[in-house]
Write a structure and sequence with these properties.
Bound molecules: zinc ion
Oligomer: single chain
Strand content: 15-25%
Order of helices and strands: EHEEEEEHH
Radius of gyration: 18 Å
Strand order of the largest sheet: 2-4-5-6
Number of domains: 2
Number of strands: 6
Helix content: 10-25%
């Protein structure tokens, strides 16, 4: 399943407030004002993007939540934590999220990058790698 396409403009002040007011948090990825919903396409309820991880509690993460056309808000949510049948991956969405688990939601652009990364090995172009190992 592909991810939802909803995006929202999240003011930096919102995250700054959470960081100063709440428990210690490490932001996920570089700060981007436009946040994209991570839940599976055509989900019910609020859109959601993981904002940050809690430093002192690995079971919770800071999420940005918004309804279509509404203003974003932030909230601490417990992780879903559902394993794949083979238990080799765990869901990184929040507990009680709608639709598929995170390991069933695939962004085609990210998938393409991963394929390139695997083909090229450690992210180096083949030519550079050939020179390194063949010389
Ligand atoms: Zn959404
Ligand atoms: Zn899940």
């Amino acid at each position: 399943m592909r991810p939802c396409t909803a995006v929202v403009l999240a003011p930096l002040a919102l995250w700054e407030f959470a960081r100063l007011d709440g428990p210690p948090v490490t932001v996920v990825g570089p700060w981007e004002p436009w946040q994209r919903c991570r839940i599976a396409l055509w989900h019910r309820g609020d859109h959601a993007s993981r904002f940050g991880d809690r430093d002192d509690d690995p079971d919770h993460a800071l999420w940005l939540l918004w309804s279509t056309g509404g203003s974003p808000r932030i909230g601490w949510q417990r992780f879903c934590g559902q394993f794949t049948p083979g238990r080799d991956d765990v869901c990184t969405f929040f507990s009680g999220h709608p639709r598929e688990h995170s390991w069933d939601v695939v962004d085609p652009a990210v998938e393409r990058l991963w394929r390139q990364y695997k083909v090229n090995g450690a992210g180096f172009p083949k030519t550079v790698r050939g020179r390194e190992t063949g010389g």
